[in-house]
TrEMBL record:
This is tRNA-uridine aminocarboxypropyltransferase. One of its GO terms (molecular function) is cholesterol transfer activity. InterPro entries: DTW, StarD4, START-like_dom_sf, START_lipid-bd_dom. It holds the Pfam family DTW. Signal peptide: none annotated. GO terms for biological process: cholesterol import; cholesterol transport involved in cholesterol storage; intracellular cholesterol transport; tRNA processing. Residues 163-352 form the START domain. The lineage of its organism: Eukaryota, Metazoa, Chordata, Craniata, Vertebrata.
């Protein structure tokens, strides 16, 4: 929405507000004379017809300015609305809902939102893929987030109220203040193995290395939580934690990077005080039609317990040749965000 549109909306709404007041006065006058007039046959008083889509009086219906069809969005909006906002004349939420497909805009009305009474909202707030729109010292620009919104569906929580109502709702609802885990750092340097980059990712995970590695090593569990992996099959199980695994990854960056298939030799073993799961692609003849075969140069995930603490440090070294004709900037963006998503998906899976 541009500022001109906003201005028009407000002006029309103010006019609408005045009309509401006038109507109220008329109704009061009607009430005074009601005892006398009640004996007479009267026609039902006519309410102003209201547009069913934007919920505004037909006279000031905004539907011609809204998209003719609901916008095709993957993001789901969760609006926590102050009760006073519901009756305000501006009524921006029905306008927003009218632009989105059914089910993509959910409204929760109230001042306090406990986990017990609002389990759906609580689950959304705890999800690592949920963003809260709220200004403050800890806020980040959407452009600065190293998140690829094309690979995972995200939810956005909006607080609807005046500034002071929104501040009160934000500060007094623990659900809206769940710490966001963004402590993942991604570095890169030119690879010695191929023409691309070696990526290193590091972050902490609140779990012991054994359980973390049970989720990372090739197997059905990895397929359950890793949003990048769309299929996974162990082709051969070898001794001492080794196997040959075939897996496919989803398209990234609005499918600029199409799905990829990999066939890797993988090995999971003890490493220092923790565990290591490493792999490298191997030659494999059978190839799925229409899927580009990618190639992993030596990669590995190292997991060791942090000093004096119950958390572990998980470090990944990834040098994936995606092959195909791809612009380097697309690969860089996709790699950084898929590594950050890897940590958030893993943390979410371990909580369950
Ligand atoms: Zn309308």
């Amino acid at each position: 929405m541009n500022s001109q549109f906003n201005k028009d909306t407000v002006e029309e709404t103010n006019e609408d507000d005045d009309e509401d007041e006038e109507e109220t006065k008329e109704e009061e006058e009607d009430d005074e004379g009601f005892s006398v007039l009640s004996e007479l046959p009267v026609e039902k008083s006519e309410r102003r017809p209201t547009c069913r889509r934007c919920c505004r009086p037909v006279k000031v219906c905004l539907c011609p300015y809204l998209p003719p069809c609901p916008l095709d969005v993957s993001t789901c909006l969760y609006i926590v609305q102050h009760p006073a906002e519901e009756s305000r004349v501006l009524r921006t939420v029905p306008l927003l809902a009218a632009c989105l497909p059914p089910g993509k805009c959910k409204v929760f009305i109230g001042r306090r939102f406990s986990e017990e009474r609002y389990p759906e909202l609580a689950a959304v707030c705890k999800d690592a893929h949920t963003l809260l729109l709220y200004p403050g010292a800890g806020a980040e620009n959407l452009e600065d987030l190293s998140t690829d919104f094309s690979t995972t569906a995200h939810s956005v929580v909006l607080i609807d109220g005046t500034w002071s109502q929104a501040k009160d709702m934000f500060l007094r609802n623990a659900l809206l203040q769940l710490p966001r885990q963004k402590d993942v750092t991604v570095w890169r340097k030119p690879s010695h193995e191929f023409g691309g980059f070696l990526y290193k990712a590091e972050g902490t995970v609140a779990e012991n290395p054994q359980r973390i590695m049970d989720y990372i090593r090739p197997g059905a569990r990895r397929l359950e939580w890793d949003s990048m992996i769309t299929s996974l099959e162990i082709l051969q199980t070898l001794d001492q934690g080794c196997c040959v695994v075939k897996y496919t990854t989803s398209g990234q960056l609005w499918n600029i990077i199409s799905p990829r298939e990999f066939v890797d030799f993988s090995c999971t073993s003890e490493y220092q005080r923790g565990l290591l799961s490493c792999g490298v692609s191997v030659d494999h003849d059978e190839q799925k039609a229409g899927v580009v075969r990618g190639f992993n140069h030596p990669c590995g995930w190292f997991c060791v317990p942090a000093e004096d603490s119950e958390i572990s440090v998980l470090t990944g070294y990834i040098q994936t040749d995606l092959r195909g004709m791809l612009p380097q900037t697309a690969v860089d963006t996709a790699m950084a965000s898929s590594l950050v998503n890897f940590y958030s998906d893993l943390r979410q899976a371990l909580k369950i």
